[in-house]
Amino acid sequence: MPPKTQLDRLAIGLMLVFCTIWGVQQVAVKIASAGISPVWQAGLRSIGAALLVWAWSALRGVRLFERDGTLLPGLLAGLLFAGEFALLFLGLQFTTASRGVIFLYTAPFVVALGAVWLLPHEHMRRAQWTGMGLAFAGVLALFGENLLHPAGRAWIGDLMVFAAAVLWAGTTLTVKASALARVSAEKMLLYQLAVSALALPLLSLLLGEPGVFAPTPAVWASLAFQTVAVASASYLGWFWLIRHYPATRLSSFSFLTPVMGVLAGGLLLGETLTPAVFAALALVGTGIWVANRPGRR
């Protein structure tokens, strides 16, 4: 499949599914955190997902170990991936989840800025910047009130989550601008899962986390969902999309994820859904539409 310059119905449909899965992941992480330490949880997820992606690749006959110039960028992407989740989970120990969402979803802007130098063929038009601004305004409408009331050392967590956003964007740009863009999505993802499967458990041990301290069926089910649906299936689909479609256009869809997370919290955990949720959804949807309209010729 040759690279495309616009998102078609397949890409849009997949991104809607993935953003919904990533939104539900926010609920799954909350449930699993009641019985598994944060960084250890991320490490277990990477270990399980790496085994699943390797098994999937073996069944499909995907070549994973041939020399194709991807070793160095693959290791870099893996370190960025591991660092992103370590900083995210650690940062949320200092700041609130709602503040963290705002800083994390600066990542699409970092992708757009990096694309100016690394992906000149994905030059952002004014309408795309406007659309991303509208989508981010939707995130601010949902969570922005919490920015005005920092507590204690929240700024430390804010900085760590923002750093996680930069690493998330760095992973996307590394994949798109290197030899990784020419290999299978399985190999692309396996680099990241394998490196994080080694790095995150070691970091957890260094931090003195207790690991699995209160295992329950709900905790294991939440970890299984993260491993199978999120880190294996959805990430595999995401990197397939990154290989074939413009990264800047795909990144604009990520603003849907926090809104889907709040909706999932309302449906699955009984959390209150205020009018701001639906206003945010409208703003994000409008922003995505504006950002992905075909340009005038």
TrEMBL record:
Pfam families according to UniProt: EamA
Keyword annotations for this protein, in alphabetical order, are: Membrane, Transmembrane, Transmembrane helix
Task: Report the residue ranges that make up the EamA domain in this protein.
Answer: 11-142, 156-292
Q: Which residues cross the membrane?
A: 42-59, 71-94, 100-119, 131-148, 154-177, 189-207, 219-241, 253-270, 276-292
Q: How does it sit in the membrane?
A: Multi-pass membrane protein
Which InterPro entries does this UniProt record tie to the protein? AA-Vitamin_Transporters, EamA_dom, EmrE-like
What the record says about family reads: Belongs to the EamA transporter family.
Q: What is this protein called?
A: DMT family transporter
